[in-house]
Amino acid sequence: MPVSPNEAADALAEIVRHLLDHAANHDDLDHLVAALDIVQHLCWNGVSLKDITEPVKMDAVQMALAAGVVERLVEVYSAPPHNLPQQAPVWCAGVPPSPIEVWLVSPTPAEGATLNPIFRRRNVVTLENFLSFA
Fold it and tell me: From the CB of residue 128, how many other CB atoms can be counted at a distance below 10 Å?
């Protein structure tokens, strides 16, 4: 049974909470794994990304991260091997970058590491392949 737009918005809020908890303590991978599990659950259950309702009760940092997650999933699912064309919801376009830089990777990434441009536009630092498993 497909995930409803409101259920997807609630799940997105949980993903953001887990990612921010991970950003606060990079050594604790439990929050990162929990966020990625929710992402996979959404995608395996036929979520239409363009229909995700705009999250409520999120601050500017949380909204930037939420928009980045959705935009990245659009990119991942629209490309091979998935080839499931998706679109971002309209609300993503109106979300500004985070007012503070959020590091989802260690503050000292490996030399030569490539950062993800979708998240960089949102003032979020993570590796280029973040969420590519989805």
Answer: 13
Q: 69 is written with which tokens?
A: 């997650």
pLDDT at 91: 97
CB 50 within 8 A of CB 89: yes
- Cα 122 to its chain centre, rounded Å, is 11
| Mean pLDDT calculated for residue range 33-40 | 89
Question: What is the reported pTM?
Answer: 0.91
Distances (CA, A) of 77 to 105, 111, 131: 22, 28, 10
Are β-strands 124-125 and 102-103 bridged in parallel, bridged antiparallel, or unpaired?
A: parallel
Rounded to 10°, the helix 5-24/60-78 angle is 110
